[in-house]
Every structure is written in structure tokens, then in C-alpha cells.
Amino acid sequence: MKTIIVSRSNGSSYSCSETNTQTLLKEPHRHPGVFVARGKEDMLVTKNLTPGESVYGEKRISVESSAANTGAVNGEAAPATKTEYRVWNPFRSKLAAGILGGLDEIFVRPGAKVLYLGAASGTSVSHVADVVGPTGTVFAVEFSHRSGRDLINMATHRTNVIPIIEDARHPLRYRMLVSMVDVIFADVAQPDQARIVGINAHLFLKVGGGVVVSIKANCIDSTAAPEAVFAREVTKLREERIKPLEQLTLEPFERGKPYQWLVWPT
Ligand code: SAM
Fold it and tell me: Of ligand 1's atoms, which has the minimum distance to the CA of residue 141?
């Protein structure tokens, strides 16, 4: 049993400049389904499931495979094809920050089924949906009706996202909508998050599945030192039979406040 812990800090200097698609090189990241756009600045990107559309105003990058690369059929050059990617900003997504910070395992990969607790308006969820692709599914749970409206709107364009406007403390209310999943991603920022993760894992997580938990120390106990809060949360997760795999801070993308863990149960 292993854990990844990531701490995150606040920042604003990450820029997603307009990219010259002619000079851009795109290559796979070591996490399947995640890519790196190499240009003047390297950027983390996901393959846009809905080409032509942004979700929250993020930059899109179109990469053309030249006819020469796509081969010839019956002596005729195949037409050039275009693939669109969306820039994944680590200042807006803890998972992107964790990937750039060097997470070894995220469990989110093409074809995976993901239970995402604390989906908010769906900005990070939309990238997770890009990563799992058309053969994967993201069950996105959010209890705020206000954020849920944006989440539902995003899901109307991404059919691999199932929006669930419910309290993650009561998974029995949505058990009819959720299948067994490969990974639970939790970012509810609640004092009882460990318990919330535990009850959802016991109901929905496949044997050998992964759990990725973002811990925001000051949301759990603002009076204690973050390291102490962190250690207590690890103990609580262990009591839920979820053991640490890896841990990582999210510097420089967030400073001081949250911590993010990647854990998996045995
Ligand atoms: N993961 C999101 C992202 O990266 O875009 C940000 C999530 S935000 C830190 C936490 C979200 O969890 C909020 O939208 C909040 O409404 C939601 N939340 C908190 N407690 C919840 C609960 N018990 N059930 C469902 N959603 C909850």
C-alpha cells in the first residue's frame, strides 16, 4: 500500500500564450491520455473531446498531421488530419498541478471509470473526461446546485460525463447511477472527507482500484499545523483501509494551503 501527497500553493504566473500551431510539437506525457505541447513554452494538454469548443475559456491548440505522415492510399496522399488539444492549467486544476509536480500514478487513463467527488462547475472534470476518452466514464458528484448547473451544461457536450447533483456523504442516493470504478478522485474540501472517501470506496471501487485525494489542510482544521492535519488524515484513511502510495506538494502552483494525496486501498 502506497500514497502520493501533493501540496499546492497559489500562483498566477502560468501563462497560456497563443500558440503557433505550425511550430508546435505535441508528444504523449508518461501518463496515458495526457500530452505535452512543446512550443515557446511547454504546456500540459488533453485531447479535446468536443473540438471547436472550450469549457472555461481555456486555449485550444490544433495540431495538423501532414499528409506525408499519414501515408498514401492507392498512390494518392492521404488528407492531412487535425487534432485539437485543450491547455490544462495547473493553477486551475490540482490534478494538472500534481501531474506537473511528478505524480507517479494517477489511475486516470483512457477507458477508465472515474468517480469524481467535488466536481464543482466541471473545469477539471472536463479534462479528466478528455483523458478517459469516449470509452471511459466520469461520474461527477457535486452538491452545490449553482456549480451543478455549469457541470450539467458541460456534460451535455461530453457524453462520457454523468453529472450527479447530490451530497457525496450519501452515496446510496446515487448508487443506481454509478458503476464500479477504477479510481475515486476526491476534492470536496470537507473536514469529514476521509469518511466520505471511505464510504464511496467501499461501495464503488473495484478491487485494486486507486484513490486520489486532495487534502486542503485549512479546510479540515485551520488551527492545527498543516503537517499535523495531514498526518491525521492519513490515519483516518488507513482506518478506511486506504493506504498511502505517494505524497507530493503542489508547489509552485499553490502555496501553503492544500495538500493532495494519491492513495490506493489493498
Ligand atoms: N475539483 C474541482 C476543480 O478542480 O475544478 C474543485 C472542487 S472545490 C475545491 C470543492 C467542491 O466540492 C465544491 O464545489 C463543493 O460544492 C463540493 N462539495 C463539498 N462537499 C460536498 C459534498 N458533501 N458532496 C458533494 N460535493 C461537495
Answer: 25
Cα–Cα–Cα angle for 244, 248, 254, nearest 5°?
135
Residue 75 contacts by C-beta under 8 Å, 6 or more apart in sequence? none
Amino acid present at 169: R
Predicted TM-score (pTM) of this structure: 0.85
Lining ligand 1 with CB less than 6 A are 93-94, 118, 120, 123-124, 141-144, 147, 167-169, 187-190
Report yes or no: 160 and 128 within 8 Å, Cβ to Cβ.
no
**Predicted confidence (pLDDT) per residue in 10-68, tens digit:** 323 333 333 444 445 667 888 899 999 888 788 999 999 999 999 999 999 988 776 55
- Read off the C-alpha cell for 171: 452515496
**Neighbouring-strand partners of residue 139:** 115, 162
Task: Find out whether the peptide bond into 265 is cis, omega within 30 degrees of 0.
Answer: no
